[in-house]
Amino acid sequence: xxxxxxxxxxxxxxxxxxxxxxxxxxxxxxxxxxxxxxxxxxxxxxxxxxxxxxxxxxxxxxxxxxxxxxxxxxxxxxxxxxxxxxxxxxxxxxxxxxxxxxxxxxxxxxxxxxxxxxxxxxxxxxxxxxxxxxxxxxxxxxxxxxxxxxxxxxxxxxxxxxxxxxxxxxxxxxxxxxxxxxxxxxxxxxxxxxxxxxxxxxxxxxxxxxxxxxxxxxxxxxxxxxxxxxxxxxxxxxxxxxxxxxxxxxxxxxxxxxxxxxxxxxxxxxxxxxxxxxxxxxxxxxxxxxxxxxxxxxxxxxxxxxxxxxxxxxxxxxxxxxxxxxxxxxxxxxxxxxxxxxxxxxxxxxxxxxxxxxxxxxxxxxxxxxxxxxxxxxxxxxxxxxxxxxxxxxxxxxxxxxxxxxxxxxxxxxxxxxxxxxxxxxxxxxxxxxxxxxxxxxxxxxxxxxxxxxxxxxxxxxx
Length: 463
Ligand SMILES: Cc1cc2nc3c(=O)[nH]c(=O)nc-3n(C[C@H](O)[C@H](O)[C@H](O)COP(=O)(O)OP(=O)(O)OC[C@H]3O[C@@H](n4cnc5c(N)ncnc54)[C@H](O)[C@@H]3O)c2cc1C
Hints:
463 residues; alpha+beta; Uridine Diphospho-n-acetylenolpyruvylglucosamine Reductase, domain 2; Uridine Diphospho-n-acetylenolpyruvylglucosamine Reductase, domain 3; 7-stranded antiparallel β-sheet; 5-stranded antiparallel β-sheet; 18 strands; 34% helix; binds flavin-adenine dinucleotide
């Protein structure tokens, strides 16, 4: 069976133009946004339009023994959607239909290629929103599900797995499994929806997603508080989620990163020089409410709490500037990349460990004579660091030390970007062997021939 046979079979089974092989393959399909992993050579890139076509692809792949790599929008940061040699790259960007927008049940059923931006647009005027907002809105819901994406609002709204009620998926034997539904609770057997969320395309191909929708708040305000250092930010945090306060965003940005992202976005925060001089870290707080009066009240309480608990100064941004700063923070990755970052890591530690962990990170950086900057979802303990280290040996040792330190403090290697290929070696080295063994058996049960995204994500496998 040759690659040509595989391509011919797929062309016969799928819609016109759905299969690109050899020189027809677009280079854009061969990367995600991770900074290291290099692409292999896929046999072809296919763009199914329906679950029925996905079943055909899986049958052809099984028959030819060709691995399948799933791809959403390719915005992932861990190299999980990059094709491997001899694979079929299945791009879901033609499965973009919102199948059911059910306002009464506050639920949407969508195909996996729908992007966050498309879903948000479709929800305009309904009073509802999908609240999980990872920083890249061109990411697809299928990708978000498969990485268990988070983002700045996770501190209040949770991550993807908290908002997915059900999935339709094509399994490695070509059968279709539907889990969950328009229901918010179930005590009926193993929770297979949750098992597949975050599995990075290694267990099944997701063909439909049922998400829970939330109220869209009409009023919001953004505060920026300047602190001497991250320890001071950490000390203030517990005082911001008391007495009914529930900030939508609690984001720390170190002074260097703040300067870089505001410069890149052309935002002038007008922070007095005397404040800027003594500021080492900023805390950005977003408050939202459906009532302007309650928002005003929360704003006053939050500003007082910040001032009483270590802020050098607190600024309320204008309705125009607030969203722009959040957008600039979402683009921090591009700024770091443009400045030569070699790695972006998203270690998560318990919230109270963020400050001591980052102090340790400073010592590790010094020992390695290297440079890193940071920002992150401090409200949920997810530290994002940009690393600038060109020497491969020093880089490897530095990453290992950062992961080890995070794990020692009760954390995990990745809070939301996933393991992919970029962190797989480190994951296999650091993860509990009991866990790895069980993950291997789960993989075996779902995908005995190692068809789906082999050599990626969590779990030890022999393939
Ligand atoms: C500027 C920027 C900011 C970002 N900010 C955040 C952030 O704040 N929080 C966050 O969590 N992430 C963030 N990300 C990372 C990225 O947007 C997320 O990981 C997102 O979930 C990836 O979605 P995608 O559609 O691009 O998936 P891809 O990168 O295409 O794929 C990701 C994984 O999903 C699998 N997959 C995709 N579709 C399917 C499917 N239908 N069935 C089975 N498997 C599938 C792929 O095989 C791969 O394992 C950011 C990225 C950028 C570039």
